[in-house]
Amino acid sequence: MIHSAGLLLYRLDQDEVEVLIAHMGGPYWSNKEAGAWSIPKGEYEPDAEAAQDAAAREFREELGIDSPPPPYAELGTFPYSSGKRVTVFVADGAGVSLDDVVFGEFEMEWPPRSGKRQSFPEVDRVEWVPLETARERLVKGQRPALDALRTAIDAL
To answer: Which Gene3D superfamilies match (predicted)?
Structure first.
């Protein structure tokens, strides 16, 4: 089973909840919007690393900036239809600046079956968006994290 961990930052903007999401990089996602965004996250080995540590590490690797300092609240672990499971943590991102964002990169064969390898950014954009906009943009498996966030905020 593949395990991922991510960090969902939120902030209140004039009584509206906004979350920080990232558009996935690479040629497959370049012309897509709906279902092409993600919480900054990545894979980890549960026997070697705590999920919360992995979430903070992946945030830094994907966006090139530090995440807010812990503690983080765990929103839950959400299964994808592929069988992958993503554990999502939440933190107040009100003080996070996006001015120094530098996206991490990955390498892949492109075009397919060409034998050529190219580098692409892991994400190519990052934005603060209202919850409902995030629901339209996020990959399907991450949308339940937005419901968990809304429930947690309503309980405050």
So the answer is: Nucleoside Triphosphate Pyrophosphohydrolase (3.90.79.10)
Tell me, what's the pLDDT at 137? 97
Average confidence score pLDDT of the chain: 94
For residues 43 and 45, give the distance between their C-alpha atoms in angstroms, rounded to a whole number: 7
Which residues contact residue 19 at a Cβ distance below 8 angstroms, ignoring those fewer than 6 apart?
8, 9, 10, 128, 129, 131, 134, 146, 149
CA distance 152 to 83: 26
Q: Is the Cβ–Cβ distance between 25 and 63 less than 8 Å?
A: no
Report whether CATH 3.10.105.10 matches the domain 3-154. no
Please count the CA atoms within 13 angstroms of the CA of 70 that sit on its side-chain side: 12
Residue 130 and residue 15 in contact, taking contact as beta carbons nearer than 8 Å:
no
Domain ranges of the chain: 3-154
Record the pTM.
0.93
Work out the number of other CB atoms within 10 angstroms of the CB of residue 45: 8
* Number of DSSP helices (H) and strands (E) in the chain, helices first: 3, 9
Residue 156 pLDDT greater than 90, yes or no = no
